[in-house]
Amino acid sequence: MQTREVPPGDADVRAFLAGHGADVVARRGELVDATARPAVVTYAADGGIAGVLTYDVVGTECEVLTLHAAVQWAGAGTALVDAVRGIAARAGCRTLWVLTTNDNVEGLRFYQRRGFRLSALRPGAVDESRRTLKPRIPPTGFHGIPLRDEIELVMPLEGEEGPAAGEPASTPRTN
Fold this sequence. Notes:
The protein is of the alpha+beta class. 23% of the residues lie in helices and 33% in strands.
């Protein structure tokens, strides 16, 4: 799959994310405009958007803010993670991280299979975001699972292999 870096505010990215309800995301107690962040886009054979990943580089960390594919299991997500991993490494980042929710079992599988490790659990964080930031967050998520918590995963970028077995991926976040 072909990937391309796209600057913040791209109209096609904005439309794609809006169609997935991911143009504005609640995470870590704040609302974030994903369309105001840089993105990586992957394209299908017909030229249409196959997937979009938005990200934020802050210091030595890169956050995967959103990741959505038009069709699951077609390789778009993997291509996007690989692309942002390269972007983060070139920017001097030591860590790539992502937040997801407790109901996103497919996302948890996806990220862990690509080298991310569980780093933090924020019990009740989604409940609080629903109450204070984004009331349209549904109370029930995928597979009928109550949507309540944020789960953070991290991937160290220091080396190709990551930490040795039994070593932590990074220092757990406190904020």
